[in-house]
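Hi everyone, sorry if this is the wrong subforum. Our group has a chain we'd like a structural model of before ordering constructs, and none of us has done structure prediction before. Sequence below.
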Amino acid sequence: MKPKPQHGPRHTGRSTGNASVHGASTLPRLLGAAVIVLALFIVVGAALFFGIRNHNDAPSASNGTTTTKTAVTKKTAPKPVVTHHGNSPDCPDEDCIALFVNGDLLFHPHLWQHFQNNPSATDGTAFNFDPLFTNMKPYIQASDISVCEFETPIAPRGGPYTGYPVFAIPPEVVDAAKHVGYNACTHGTNHSWDQGAAGITRLWDELDKAGIKQTGSYKTEEDSMKPLVIDSPTGGGKLGLVTGTVSLNGEVADADWRVDRLREAGDPHHDSDIQRAVEKAKAARQQGADVVAMAIHSVQEYLTKADSWQISEAHELADTGAFDVIYGAGCHCAQPIEKYHNTWIVYGLGNAVTVTTTIPGHETNNQGISARIQFAGKRGKPGSWRVNRIDWAPTANMRQGQYQWCPIASDHPDGTCWDTATDAKQEQRIHDVIYSMGADSNVVREWRLSDEHQQGQGQQPVQ
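Answer:
Right subforum, don't worry. Here is the predicted structure as tokens:
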């Protein structure tokens, strides 16, 4: 019989020193397993590393779209820009000031007698000049700051009144200036000393009582040293205003500070007059004025071009860099607009209101222009401001036979000033004068208020 097979390990009984044959054969297998485990760790680690990167950085297509996930950090939202465009029709910056100016308020007896009620009354009812100014109100309301030019001093309430050559006009003109909406008035003119210190004091006190700011002639030396700075009621910024007249009609004031002067070159006071105007402009800026306007008053009358004093004086003032715009009155005539270097100059605004003259060659007395000068910039930031637009409206001193400020415009809803033919002739004449010194028609534009009303005075976005 064959023996039954043995189950279980077989022991040969042979020895190989310290290791058995079985122990020697397991070592390679252990090393191989370790290599495999290490390789698995490497593979798994790599998979985890790249999986995390793909999860954070790679696009996902789970819904058919690609998305990118980035770290979210909280940021403070920028403050919105607050703009003050005011009544400027197309303000190109954060802030704008629309300055309305026109020519002399020139009153003669034959003008004021048309508006008298009881000339001897002292309670403000002696005259009512409101109808004379009524057509001006929409233009003033389409501006921010409005400035008049008082050509002459005023009389006491109740008179006596005097006309040319030494004026003392009814003080009710101040009342009408307030009612129509003037914010300020200048009164540094060749007639400022017509009634001496008493005339200057009366005008100053009446304007002050009416709440109208002023500069040009002064009650006290302290007043004469203060620059006029006007806040725009629409928030656009602050306007400084400086004045000067070439003449006092041969008169000499009791003190040189009484009236702002701009005496012609060759006069021993010329340089000091220029310097005084510049110092006032600097003082206005120190008090916060964003822009400064200079009002000059000439004496050569009824011209269609700027005279030699106007040109030399305006250019010298512009060369100082102290003024953003220069405008003039006194010639009783509309005159050219010029850009000299970087300063705009409106040489002559003519008359705002006046009596009609029939003297040949003096018809320009019966006309004028009202201008809206638009400044654009950023409040409180010097160097950001500039004149970017000047609108001018030709005007007449009568409307259909009645004394009244009248805009000469073919589309004016109130109709003609004189008649269709005369209006068209004078509108064209003034147009030709305005542009005779090369004013850019893209900046200097005829002012058609009806067009602005139709357009709703829409504003341009901040650039």
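For your construct planning: The chain is about 30% helix and 20% strand. The first helix runs from residue 21 to 57.
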